[in-house]
Model the fold of this input.
Amino acid sequence: MSFTKMHGCGNDYIYINCLKGIPFDPNRLASVMSPRHYSVGGDGIVLICASEIADFKMRMFNLDGSEGKMCGNAIRCVGKYVFENHLTDKLSLVIETLSGLKTLTLHKKNGKILGVTVDMGKASLEPEMIPVLAKDKFIQHPFEVNGVTYYGTAVSMGNPHVVIYMDDIYSLDLNKIGKDFEYHPLFPERVNTEFVKVKNRTNLEMRVYERGSGETFACGTGACAAAVSSVINGYCDYDTPIGVSLIGGTLTIVVDRDLNVKMTGPATKVYDGVFAYECETE
Done:
């Protein structure tokens, strides 16, 4: 089975052309291909599929085999993949995801896609949309993890996030505490957790623990959630580019006053490969 390894700011996935169908169990394949050191290695797999309502459809599966609704870094790589593999000649694309339709603007130079801007749609703070078990919007709301009180802001970017501000994000042992946030009973569908340091009004630093994957080098929807949280909490400004620095690189996020979000960042191809796998139809 042919695949392409790609990453967006170090958030690396294994991309598979499934325009003619999915001849395997994607949940199982993700758990087989994703382990580092023992297989191809990555944060999961991304299937590029045909769509009846958009240019293409993206399905993504975390390294534990669970299917995710949306990944901002992965969708940029999908745009690069379909253009550079001559599956489209369009520089503006609509991609179907489990969290809705997303519009991509591809930035081309010398025939290659160097970066992509994604219209991520409108963020939601409504508890039932995230979901979070709260009566009102969960903004700088105290909650306890392992006996420690944290203050979090819950945001949906089509998937659930909670943003926590700290002065020191680099001493955290996310491998130890991350799952306690992910599986916190306040979040019935689990949650992605962003640990954010505010540098100034236009720059944030962030680490992320993603549900189903653990700590990753970057999370596009997480960077968007951090920017949304930062404007509503007064740390950053609306309609102003916000640089979110992650382990793997920097994403630029703009949030308008209606909480519509646009994200711009790189998309990088690493290599093409072939994986020996006994296919089983989904």
Q: What stands out?
A: The first helix runs from residue 26 to 33. Residues 127-258 form a domain with the Diaminopimelate Epimerase; Chain A, domain 1 fold (CATH 3.10.310.10). The mean pLDDT is 96. The chain has two domains: 2-119+267-274, 127-258.
